Amino acid sequence: MLNLQTILRGFEENGLKQESLYKIDEILGKLDIMGKKEFDRDIAEQLFQQCKPTQQNLKLCYKLVDIGQTIVDATQLLGEKIKNAELQLKQIQQNKAICESQLAETSVYSDTRYLFLTLTCVKNIPQKLKYSNCHVQLTLGVINQIAKPEQQYDKFNPDFNQDFEFSIPPLISSLSIQFYIRTENTLPTLWGQAQLKIQQLDDQVVKQVMLKLLDPVGRELESIVQMEAQIVLNKHQYLETQLQKFEQKMFTLDNDLIEHKHNLEIIERPFKAKQQQKELNNKYLSSNIFNQQLHTSQNQQDQNIYELDQQQQNQLNTPYEQKEQILSLLQSEKQLEIQDQTPEAPEILQHGVIIFTIYGLITLFVCSAKPSFLDVLVCHGLMFTILMDRFEPFHIKVVGIGLLASILYDILWMKQYHLWWYSDDQNNPEWGLNSVNLLRFVLIFTYIESIDPTKRYVFTIWQIQYKVGKSRESVSWQ
Q1: Contact (Cβ atoms closer than 8 angstroms) between residue 149 and residue 160
Q2: What does each of the 478 residues of the chain score in pLDDT, given as a tens digit?
Q3: Which CATH architecture has domain 1-109+237-273?
Q4: Helices 373-387 and 393-421, interaxial angle, to 10°?
Q5: What is the rounded CA–CA span in Å between residue 477 and residue 325?
Q6: The CATH number, out of the four listed (3.30.360.10, 3.30.70.1060, 2.60.40.150, 1.10.10.60), of the domain defined by the range 111-233
Q7: What is one GO cellular-component annotation here (predicted)?
Q8: Are 260 and 89 in contact (CB under 8 A)?
Q9: How far apart are CA 201 and CA 374, in angstroms?
Q10: Residue 243's closest CA among 88, 86, 97?
Q11: What is the distance between the alpha carbons of residues 477 and 248, in angstroms, rounded to a whole number?
């Protein structure tokens, strides 16, 4: 909130002296300059109406002290209005929420009657009546409710401003109102009472009621109780009406709140514009400093990254000999890994080796009946291929060509052997004809099209285990 010193200092900084008198146009001109915007003329007129002018040269002039104090009072009044409007808005929102909850629980076809009343105040309490506290008890049938006065209240005219709701039982026609007082260290004492006739009230029509209090023996007192009361025959319909009223009140309070804040901002702007500009400049300066620090930090980070990249690049630019050593070490490690990985030979290769062995043995017997030195050479070439790791492409080609030639030679020889078998030559071995089918089987399944020369396998034949492929180590018994 503004104070008088701040307002006078603002005028003085813009050329208006405190001890001088100024016309309305001069003061408004300075307010326009100070606020960097035209000061609202309607608000200005209201402010000047609260000041006491001085006539000078047939024109009305005003003292800055008087204007400043009026502005201070106006800002305080608007601040209180804003605070009260916010409190009322909050209270109405709470009442609306309660009303909505009750509406959801209320039947449209309820037959119960309700009494809604607002106890406003009790007036004209005698000054000779000394008490420290008081309250009002409202009784309808067997239902009692207590109303306590506001926190700060006048003991001769205590305000209550509390709302109450009663469901009216059958055959009950009046509401009992009792005013109790108490002094220090005493129990509450009934001082006055009154009766509210329910028949006097109309459905959903708020009625202002003022009842005179009677003392406990029935004598009339000067004090009165003031309240607003109404009967509700259909609570559901009543709550719907209350909701509409709450919404209307909230709408009005919202508009009032916006108007009060706007007026307060207009009055305070000329005297806060300079301070707000200063705060804005400080904020802008702080933002620039932060951005510079951030930019410096980013540059330093980029520099560190560049230096790290340079170091890594220098490490990569090592001599050629060192690269060769690293590559050779990697290749040797890779070869060691390959050598350590010696899986069992596939089943087809296991069977092939067994067939090669049988083929070699059979060829030895066949050679006793025919000059099949080519088969012997091919058999030894195949055995050398496996047992001696001779998987070079040239060796495989030579053995393969020899194998094909041996197959063709064996086919031609078997045809000739068949002719010899049925001839009169007694030198032909009789067991040779029985081996024809076996030889055909062996010749078909002993040809291997290709073997990967980069792999090693472990073969097991007749409990003899040996490795085949690159860098074969040794043959061992299983």
Answers
A1: yes
A2: 678 888 888 888 888 888 888 888 888 888 888 888 888 888 888 888 888 888 877 788 888 888 888 888 888 899 999 998 999 899 889 988 988 888 888 777 777 788 889 999 999 999 888 898 999 999 998 899 999 998 788 889 999 989 898 988 888 889 999 999 998 888 999 999 999 998 888 887 888 999 999 999 989 999 999 999 988 888 887 888 888 888 998 999 999 999 999 988 888 888 887 666 666 666 666 666 666 766 666 667 767 676 776 666 655 555 555 556 666 766 666 555 555 555 565 666 666 666 666 666 666 555 545 556 667 777 777 777 777 776 777 878 888 888 888 777 777 777 766 666 565 655 545 444 455 555 555 555 544 433 444 555 565 655 555 555 544 444 333 3
A3: Up-down Bundle (1.20)
A4: 150
A5: 39
A6: 2.60.40.150
A7: membrane
A8: no
A9: 136
A10: 97
A11: 105
C-alpha pair distances (Å), 443 with each of 370, 375, 403, 419:
17, 11, 9, 21
Give the number of other CB atoms < 10 A from CB of residue 75: 19
